[in-house]
Design goal:
heterodimer, A: 286 residues, mainly alpha, MetI-like fold, B: 317 residues, 2 domains, globular
Chain lengths: 286, 317
């Protein structure tokens, strides 16, 4: 009897505890989503509704025209294409050069391997601002200013150490017996990379691709330094220009911001399995 | 484990003078594969880094040849540039508030999520969303949220009868605004902490339960020590990141009002690309770099006291 009473009260207190936890989590989710909702809501308002108090969440009328208007005041189509081009090149360069280096670190035996790997990891700690100015001078000497080369070429030379680290960690989890078997069957070392390791590492490669896309799509400082001609602007620079010129047209700015964020959110949503794996795997957000 | 043949191979190669022609195929391939990274490292990282140290000893206005002035730039920072101290002050205040708050909030949410909640994947996704977006678009959205007259935050505050300040144009609240904004992106941490929490062996809790330890005691004596390596890593990475904050202040306040949000990176950018003082900007970059290093070392030093590694033998307290 007493025992049943204790169980009952335990069950009740657990239920109370869980509903408390859910309540906090749901409130947190609402707070987290609020800025996104506010952005989208504002992007569909008339200018008057933006300033209206009390708050309007579902605009009436819904001004879809804000989107085409915002995207044509400045050549956003062009900015999107530019950014896509830079992002695509960076993805190809960084996954290629990064996976090759990662393969050497994970799979080949060579003297100096440990030293070099530590060196790679050290560059993770190297802040960009220390090299920003001399890099600028270097690229100026090379006559690369106002081109995409400073944004893209470094990706082909290893890219971020983070990618190498992530891929190396992943390659290490693939059984080395596969390599040996392939080599006995007459496969070359490079063939092992191309035919065995890469196809088995799709998840890790996806993670790297998602990180690079996220990064490049929204990168601001580097394009800001190197690109001057408006025709060559990236999306982030275009947004900045927009914000500079149309400061008070909030509904337009929010439309432009929404258009910028949607691809990133979609990439994340569809790739989140890989993405979350990658974050957990390395303990860093890229 | 190295095979017998490999041992022989290393023994025999060790005697030779090592150069490219003496490397075996595997070693050659390895160097070849790492070569792009090595070139990139030398040309785009190590080279520029050393160059910037050299540049920091010059007066260089970009359009005139550089002139060697020794420690002149550093002396100017220390003796003659109030903005320099202001920038470091602002950046430090921001970093030492934003990073620990982010970690605390992240751990808190991760703890809640770890209580076997249903719909974990969905909730996790929602919390992670803000961490995926960054830069200009985010700054624009927050510019609207923090607007003193019609921003979302002040609208919310007015519901509970508080008249919110002009967040971004008030020297007293501008840094708090940036801290608040950074808390929005806490989701990346949550996933990492959650993974850490799930890695804590259940036996530990069961044993504590038998001994009658309360949830509160279990948290301080088991959970926190067990995830402390993760917290440590996040603290280091977070500090390095926070000390380099740029896009937010650049777009939202331009360092204002009255330099109250003059972050170091913003000041550095201005010197380099607006005043074209390349030498001075390089000097600033090095001071920031050393500052980051010193802070990181301090955190690492302190970690001996508060970070617990499994398998580590400790004297009883």
């Amino acid at each position: 009897m007493v025992l049943r009473y204790i169980r009952e009260s335990q069950r009740r207190s657990l239920a109370f505890k869980m509903s408390f936890i859910y309540a906090i989590l749901v409130i947190g989710m609402v707070v987290v989503l609020m800025p996104f909702l506010w952005m989208v809501s504002t992007s569909l308002k008339t200018p008057a509704a933006v300033f209206k108090i009390p708050t309007v969440w579902i605009p009436n009328p819904i001004v879809w025209a804000n989107y085409p208007n915002a995207l044509t005041i400045l050549p956003f189509g062009r900015f999107i294409l530019n950014t896509a081009q830079i992002t695509a090149l960076a993805v190809v360069g960084a996954t290629l050069s990064g996976s090759l280096a990662a393969f050497a670190f994970a799979r080949l035996r060579w003297r100096g391997r440990n030293f070099m790997f530590v060196l790679v990891l050290t560059t993770l700690m190297l802040p960009f601002q220390v090299i920003m100015i001399p890099q600028f001078i270097l690229f100026r000497e090379l006559k690369w200013l106002d081109t995409y080369l400073p944004l893209v070429v470094p990706a082909f030379f290893g890219g971020s150490a983070f990618n190498i680290f992530l891929l190396r960690q992943y390659f290490m989890t693939i059984s080395p017996e596969l390599d040996d078997a392939a080599i006995i069957d007459g496969c070359s070392r490079f063939g092992v990379y191309w035919r065995i390791i890469l196809p088995l590492s799709k998840a890790a490669l996806m993670t790297v691709v998602i990180f690079i896309v996220q990064n490049r799509w929204q990168s601001f400082l580097v394009p800001l330094i190197y690109l001057f001609d408006q025709k060559k602007y990236t999306l982030a620079l275009g947004l900045r220009l927009f914000q500079d010129q149309y400061t008070v047209e909030w509904e337009m700015m929010m439309a432009a911001a929404t258009v910028t964020m949607v691809p990133v959110l979609l990439v994340f949503y569809f790739g989140q399995r890989f993405f979350i794996q990658g974050v957990v795997f390395t303990g860093v957000k890229g | 484990m190295a095979t017998f043949q490999e041992n022989i191979a290393t023994l025999s190669t060790r005697k030779q003078k090592r150069n490219w022609y003496h490397l075996n195929g595997e070693e050659r391939l390895a160097w070849l594969l790492v070569l792009p990274w090595i070139i990139g490292f030398l040309a785009f990282q190590l080279g520029p880094m050393l160059a910037s140290l050299g540049l920091s000893l010059t007066e260089w206005r970009m359009f005139t040849p550089p002139k060697f002035i020794g420690l002149g730039n550093y002396i100017e920072m220390a003796a003659d540039d109030p903005n320099f101290f202001q920038a470091f002050k602002v950046t430090t205040i921001y970093s030492v508030t934003s990073v620990p708050l982010r970690i605390m909030l992240g751990v808190l949410v991760a703890l809640l999520l770890n209580a076997k909640v249903r719909g974990l994947a969905f909730i996790r996704t929602v919390y992670y969303l803000p961490a995926t977006v960054s830069g200009v678009a985010v700054a624009m959205v927050w510019l609207l949220i923090l607007n003193g007259d019609f921003g979302l935050l002040n609208r919310a505050l007015s519901l509970i009868g508080i008249e919110g300040p002009y967040w971004l144009t008030d020297t007293r609240t501008v840094l708090a605004s940036f801290v608040l904004m950074s808390l929005w992106g806490v989701g990346a941490g949550i996933i990492i902490y959650l993974a850490g929490l799930q890695g804590v062996p259940n036996e530990l809790y069961e044993a504590a339960e038998v001994d009658g330890a309360s949830d509160w005691v279990q948290f301080w004596k088991i959970t926190l020590p067990m995830i402390s390596p993760v917290l440590f890593f996040q603290l280091v990475i977070g500090m390095i990141d926070a000390l380099q904050e740029f896009a937010g202040p650049f777009i939202m306040t331009q360092g204002g009002p009255g330099n109250a949000s003059l972050f170091v990176m913003l000041y550095l950018f201005r010197n380099g690309f607006e005043f074209f003082r390349m030498g001075y900007a390089s000097g600033l970059a090095w001071v920031l770099f050393v500052y980051i290093m010193v802070l990181t070392l301090l955190i690492i030093r302190s970690s001996a006291v508060w970070v617990y590694y499994e398998g580590e033998v400790r004297e009883a307290e």
